[in-house]
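A reminder before we start the practical. When you read a complex entry, don't treat the lines as separate problems. The point of joint prediction is that each chain is placed relative to the others, so the output describes one connected object in space. Small molecules and nucleic acid strands, if listed, are placed in the same frame. In the example below there are three entries. Take a minute to note the order of the lines before looking further.
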Amino acid sequence: MALEDCRYDMETCRRCSICKFMPLEKVSSVDRINVCPSISRYEFHSYCGGGRMVMGTALLENRLDYTDKLLEVVYNCQMCGACDTSCKYSMDMEVMGPINEIRISCVENGRTNPALDKVINLLRKQGTMVPGTRSKRGDWVDGMNLKDCAKEKVDVVYHVGCLTSYNKDMWNQAKTIARLLQDAGVNFGIAGNNETCCGGRAYQMGYKEDFLNQARKNMDMIKKSGAKMLVTGCADGYQAFKVLYDQHGFKGDLEVLHITEYLARLIKESKLTPRKKVDTVVTYHDPCHLGRKGEPWIHWEGKEVIDEIRTLDPPREYRRGTYGVYEPPRDVLRSIPGLKLVEMDRIKEYAWCCGAGGGVNESNPEFSMWTAIERINEAELTGASAIATACPWCVKNFKEAVSRKGSNLKVYDIIELLEKAI
Amino acid sequence: MVLNKNFYKGLVDILGPEYVSDDPVITETYAYPIRQGIPVPARFEAITLPDSTEEVQAIVKLCNQYKVQYKASSTGWLYSDPAGPNCIKIDLRRMNRILEINEKSMYAVVEPYVIGAQLQAECMKRGLNCNLTGAGGNCSALPLAAHVNLGHLSQSGSYGERNQLALEWVTGDGEIVRLGSLGMLDEWFCGDGPGPSLRGIIRGDTTPLGGLGVYTKAAQKLFHWPGPTTFPMEGVSPKYTPAYIPDGFLVRYFSFKDLDAMIEAVLKIGESEIATELMCFNPAMMAANLATKNVEEEIEIYNRFNSEVLGPGFMTLIAANSRGDFEYKKKVLQTIVDETGGKPLEEVEDPENQGGYIWRYFRETGSIKETGRTLAPQAGMVGGTDAFPLMSYFIKSCSRVKERLIKEGALLDNGTAPFIQSTEHGHLAHGEVLAQASMRLKGDKLREMQRSINMGSNEISIKGHFGMPQHVWGDPLHDMYGPHTSNYHLWLRKVKKTFDPNGASESSTYITAKE
Amino acid sequence: MIEKEKLVKVVGADNVIYEPAVLGEYAKDMSFINTVRPDCVVKPRSTDDIVKLVKLSRETLTPLVPVSSGPPHFKGDTVPAAGGAVIVDLSDMKKIIRVDRLNRVAMFEPGVTFGELIPTVTKEKLRLNMPLMPRKTKSVTASMLEREPVVLPIYHWDLPDPLNCVEIIFGTGDMFRTGAAAGPGSLEEQWAAGGAQVTPAGPSSASWYRMIGGSQGTMGIVCWSSARCELLPRVEEPYFVGSKDLDKLMEMVHWLIRLRMPNECFILNRTNLATMMSKNYVKQYREIHDSLPPWILFYNLAGYDYYPEERVKVHEEDARGIAQRAQVEAARSAGRISAFEFLKAAQAPSAEPYWKLRASGACQDIAFITNLQNVEVLLDVMYDAASQAGYPVPYMGTYIQPLVQGANYHVEFNLFYDSNNRREVRLVRNLTNDVIDPLIANGAFFSRPYGETARYILNKDVATVEMLKRVKTIFDPDNVMNPGKLCF
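Here is the predicted structure of the whole assembly.
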């Protein structure tokens, strides 16, 4: 797909502004109805989904060029997908697709953000999107006896992800996941130092070729391992394997689960029973790439039928955020004795982004933090003493935000809370 | 066109560099996205984002000083583009506060970028409701910023021209006027006086659409809400359903053998004051509201609805104040429907669908689907606001134009059933014929169709004496209608000249003060 | 000055009056406005007459003062403020042009009074949303143009209601029709199409009728108006609720209107209710007054064409619930007055003598609009001021009328006094002037300022005055229409 292929969708935008707000049916207050961090921060229409649609058309029409300002608008977006979901409440058009294609076209035209180039160079050299070397990727294992799926046959690949692998504060999550899988008798393996980045973030940033390279590498390794299932604790990784790989024809029959889906399954089947009380009030943050962006890809092949009206043959089903992973993480939390779950105003398919995605964490840390602090403010209003989530990027951003703000709110990965209860 | 650098510096001095931009990336992205069948409009020279009435005033005065035009808008869905160069946008996005909700006096005061959904949500917490503009809960809650501001609640909740209380207005030349009780008392409860009411200047059945200064704050009437503080919607977008239908709420759709039967039913329902909402949607609109999958599903539902209806019909929604009230209203509704031969569309009242319809109609989430989803250039004929029978006959006449164009293959055949809405329990009404261009039409043929529809509508209005439609703006149309309509256009030009002497408010969607 | 011959040519000799006695009647009214004798009185018969009169007045810059109602006048707006004025007395223009049951509208000339219009609309099973017991000579058109408060608040969607459209001759001499009446087409053509001059707004992006209402004849002369009508009920059940606690009654009023129940609905103090129901004031007033509680809410529940009794029954039950929560109780009578008896009186013009004149022969009204929360405070302000001025508070009438479906409230104090008693005149006049500022400071909005305090009140809103003057330059650039009134 190229930007030109998105023309129809971009010109379908009605400029109704719904991309700025949560689905109207769910608005229950004057506050916290914005879903797009970009326009919420920068205010000009240019920064919202609708504005980006016009930007794309204007690029195709040569009314705009890849100026510094264009790049600034393009890259100040977490690619969180909220605009896409809100738009598709009513409209049959893609919003994230064109937004991503604009970025891809920037990269193809050599108009990139230096901070992101730096990240991609690291990816190319070390197979990671966070500072670290290939040889250290498996250090988190630290004595655990785990199968190496790069060398052995396994049923399940546990993909740890870049941030968890290289951030010592997150190693415990990886270890807990590994332990839980072991205790459940799952025949799984990890790739350790041979694990390489899923490439999802690279795709979000517009580096499509790099993403494709990563996808090839990962699927080669998975195929060789014989695994039919991949489990990950990272929402970005989840979305990459489940959706992007499928979209680009790599996924095949591989079943992709987020660890919370897997654990929720185990809990439901009584194969895992949290018993210890964890007396805390928690609010859950839906990671974008697990929630609305984690909805399975829908393949469609057909043709446009232009009669009096444009229809598609066969009819196309749109990914509207309906089938993202929302309940399993909540089920896990609800299974923990003593834990009370309270909800924020913006949840599930209209959750506010943590701020880290789309390269913003790297290219504009101030905007990333601004977004995260908005979320922390929202979490505090629930009266919860902790915010839990299911993505290391969200955890990282929230922890930083809490520290920056001087908040007492605790930040957990769900795995941490579950571990306390087991 | 490059703006005078002192003028731009003036804007920066008022707003700070963060809230003004003339970068082409910014200005270009404010352009209307639809390209098909529409001439490429001009672009704003700069975008400004004021935060207060004082900043708006300063921008307006600067524009007057430098002879630059401005056009203010809230969410800017439609009618907010410039007609030519030398115009800046006043984007009121940062003016998004609800200033007051007075429960006992039943009014709310908002800034322009509060959207209807927000205001309604806050009102509901207090047992109140507000009229949302028919275009949807995503549009401005400030009645003057949301076109005519007729809405689904208009049957019992009237519309913007009538619901307006006090307001704050920055005139075309930058004076701040506070109308009604606001000017004298700093209170919002009354919009008229002292003496003659300046509300008469700032809007009529239609609004100046940015052509007569900027409305920065306004109060509007609220209405009783007998429902829950938050509507119990569950599920994930777009498949929301309510956990339950609140007591005293129902929605129905009835169709009739002909327009006269429907008119009779609507007037009787109006006179008996039983309906909270009454909208003469046609099957296409009902189908669009229900469909969540894709346009093919919508077509399927439409075909099903269309095969079941007798003819023109309406949706009516009752939200009763007590059990007795509910039973009474249901009984009266059934009696009237029986008397007039109405046939229910059962899928609407199916428990699977009913709750969703109720909430979508209150929150007005379906308008985007109804008008934008089928992805075809829109066309349509729009009436004014007048007596219900008159509006119905007008739209019936307009429907013949649509019928002819359908036969010619110029329009999508989604029926010729009218869309009419009843206001103030049938005292007033507004009608439209919605149409979509056939996708087969391109270029000149498309423009010819649009001209045909517009001219057809104008001819019917003028020769048929059906009143002033709401699409009449811009000098050419005013010059066409004025001589038949008390030469209002000459007076309106005087209003424009008097309150915007330098013509600083861009008025392609209003009127100019040309001699 | 317009030459007599020219006036005679327009309206006919019988309709041009120079008799001093007649002129004297228009030179003053029951307000404290300055006495200014007009030059003459003319009585036009048609729109055409009025057009010609306005043209003549422009040629000679002769002030025109339109008058539609018969005497006595109370507000000072019909007394010239400038010398050499011509009174344009429209009270003989009494044609009821049309009553349209389907579209619930009536159209009539300015001289038509409530007493004349009510029987005609009643024949069509319609009724007017009218003020409370207007005087017999009150013009319906004038009442609507003055934005007088009306007694059916749930049918009062907007402040100018029930006014729909007007035909007006502006001070420029141009004829203009507002709202739906503007066209396209003549009135006959509109009727043939099914139009009924219903919509007040427009034409186009101005609501011209709003600038005519409240203008006290300073924009032009109205030749006819159309008014929204409501259905005549089939069943009516009126009630009184008496209390010494006004706040409880206000609470009940708020909910009755919010739930859209009552037809007639307003609050009176016992002074007013007793006065209204005392045709023979001397004989009846005291007894009736003493039988009443200090405050009386009156409301009427009605049923129309469909199951009217059931509708009333439902509303009665719901109203009982409201009364219980407000800790009051509805009854079929208040003191010696039955609710049905009062309903009948409230649905008609005042019986003679006009109720406001029964107590002492004269009455000065102090009236404003406020919101629910301010009502009681403003009553205290007024009563304090009255006490301090020496006006006996129990002698003062008070009328509270919910407006605009409960969005605001008309509060009216009726100061009864003897106009032959100089002390009383001085007292009432001074009180009227002195109480303005404290009332405004506590939330009184004088939406319709009249008489000698009008300019003072208007000047408190300089920006509005500036804009009103701009409006005036559009419709009456030569300032011939009732100059000296308001801020003009």
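Discuss with your neighbour: The longest helix of chain C spans residues 308-326. What might explain this?
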